[in-house]
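Q: Make up one entry.
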Amino acid sequence: MSAHALDHEPDDLAMAARAALVREIDRSGAWDADPVWREAFEAVPRHLFVPYYYVGAVGGFERVWGEDPDPRARERWLRGAYADAPLATRVRDGELLSSSSQPSLMAKMLTELEVEDGDAVLEIGAGTGYNAALLAHRLGDAYVTTVDLDPEITESARRHLAIAGFYPTVVTGDGARGVPERAPFDRIIATCTLTSVPRAWLPQCNPGARILAPLATGLITLRVRDGEYAEGRFLHTPAYFVPLRGDTRPEPEEPHLGGLPPRARSHELFRFLLTLTAGSLDPYEAYALWEREEQPVRERYGITVDGERVWAWLDDPEGPYTWPLP
């Protein structure tokens, strides 16, 4: 195996765990529209990118790592590395700073990115480097750029990538500003939650570029027309990621929902609407809309960027239901 391998376990333990993960993603249908991604997940060893991770424990987090002297603990680490689950990889003062996303969601997002050979891709949020490795396996190192604000994260991602044999461009910087020195890009994918669409991204895109990013507990897909204009709709898939750091816009406050029916307060699609309209609609207005429009699904919502204006909408960007984004 590798420098992070189990000292006394056969190579086929990691291979079997990876094969089981691939079968699980296959059953989920995540890459049905582009099954070439299966090859990347078969080839890229996730455990090399998570030499340790954290699991929830009484009073905080427990560290699980591949150099544990207990062979049973090392096996637990390895099997956990190939679970179809997100892994907390960086925690500070009890706060989650970085994670490795759920592999089936990564597969879904990569498929929805609709890459083609020769596409230049910018990833916002380097994380462990695993997603960049999957992209580099598919497209080649020269076509992949990943950026993160935290130098510790970019350094560890670069190290993990090198151990796995991949050498995409890893940049330390504010992802909200893009990476202009590596532009133009054909695809931008974010692995952190946005509060709006950074204006700096569009001028760094080729016409027709596709942007895929988590926003308001969903995934927005935008098609870029030019450096001033992009538009698109949300996918049906829920998505929860750590926030984009470096974006100075404050996170919206948790709304007070007292007085609303319990079924609305706990409904995932209503929470999506609340997050999307934060600062524009109070919860009672949002609830009235949600009921009037028969609890609309995510795919009915979209976002438009036009110069300095960014707004979300229901059904029609010029229709009666629109809300400005910061």
Q: What stands out?
A: Confidence is low (pLDDT under 50) at residues 1-8. The chain is about 30% helix and 25% strand. The radius of gyration is 20 Å.
